[in-house]
Amino acid sequence: MTDTEAPPGVPATAPPPVRNRRRRPAPYLLLVPALATLLLGLGYPLVRQVAMSFQEFGLAQQFGTADPGWIGFDNYVEILSDPTTWAVIARSVVFCFAAASLTLVIGMGVALLMRSISTVARLILQVSMLAAWATPLIASLTVWNWLFDTRYGVVNWLLVKIGFEGMEGYSWLANPWTFFLVAGVIVVWMSVPFVAFSLYAALTQVPEETLEAAQLDGASRTQRFRHIIVPTIRPVLSIVMLLQIVWDLRVFAQIKYLQGAGGTVSETNLLGTYLYQLGIAQSEYGVASAVAMVMLLLTLGLTFGYVRSLLREERAS
């Protein structure tokens, strides 16, 4: 009996079909327009900014009256030896993690609430969050500025009414601590709808039979949440947290608007506004490009763990 023959009593099986391993070029050709657009829209500005971070590039170079000089790592040495840069980085990281964590907690709570309430109440809540999320940024910031206004703000008025007499005429934006409290409230308020919708969509994929079986076995609500719900929606949680860290680390519009409404710029700068101040206000484009590269490396470092966990889950699936 040869190696290809089946032993007596065992039915012969057909050999596995030979797959055509030749790859067709058509799918790759269809990717060319998208890849070309990405390279032109993202690749060139990134390469240009990296080059500028090693050059002396100011207003004269911007208008072409002088050639940009190659100065190596001088821009990086300048910003990394400046205590202001390290203060801005520390402030940005703390604000980023505080806002992202609070957004995730509130968003999860709202998602769980939407899962447990009636259909009508859920639709009302979803429409309300969608309206808040879709409101133009400047309009939202204007409303929040009115709420915390020193003389006419509703927040100060309510605090005085419930017994906090010292809050009459209090300026929330003049103090850096309360400035970031207001900024954090605005950033979280604008981010919660996205997180809530994303997590609610993930919660709809949690098997009800598994939750009911765990409840019959005596698992409490907290145990069901920790051991069934969270592991099931962990990929979505990781992606949402990753996006929130990236967005909150480069927050700009909210901080810039509040600074113009009364905040102290030197004590409330985050990386986004610090980059704007160096590049646009002071025309130090080379130094600003170096700050942008540090900001990029910081973002990659903070999100590395989440990206690695996503890749691990992708391989496991």
TrEMBL record:
Q: Which residues form the ABC transmembrane type-1 domain?
A: 89-306
PROSITE patterns assigned to the protein according to its UniProt record, in alphabetical order: ABC_TM1
What the entry lists under SUPFAM superfamilies is as follows: MetI-like (SSF161098)
Coiled-coil positions: none
Q: Where is the composition biased (Pro residues)?
A: 8-18
Q: How does this chain sit within the bilayer?
A: Multi-pass membrane protein
Renumbered residue ranges of the record's region Disordered: 1-21
The entry's keywords: Cell membrane, Membrane, Transmembrane, Transmembrane helix, Transport
Which GO BP terms, alphabetically? transmembrane transport
Instruction: Please verify whether the record's keywords include Nucleotide-binding.
Output: no
**Signal sequence, start to end:** none
Top-level taxon of origin: Bacteria
Q: Where in the cell is it found?
A: Cell membrane
Q: Which GO terms describe its cellular component?
A: plasma membrane
Query: Membrane-spanning residues where?
Result: 28-47, 88-111, 123-147, 177-203, 228-247, 285-307
Query: What InterPro entries does the record point to?
Result: MetI-like, MetI-like_sf, UgpAE/MalFG_permease
Q: Which Pfam families match?
A: BPD_transp_1 (PF00528)
Entry keyword Ubl conjugation: no
The family assignment reads: Belongs to the binding-protein-dependent transport system permease family.
Query: Could you tell me what this protein is called?
Result: Sugar ABC transporter permease
**Native species of this protein?**
Mumia zhuanghuii
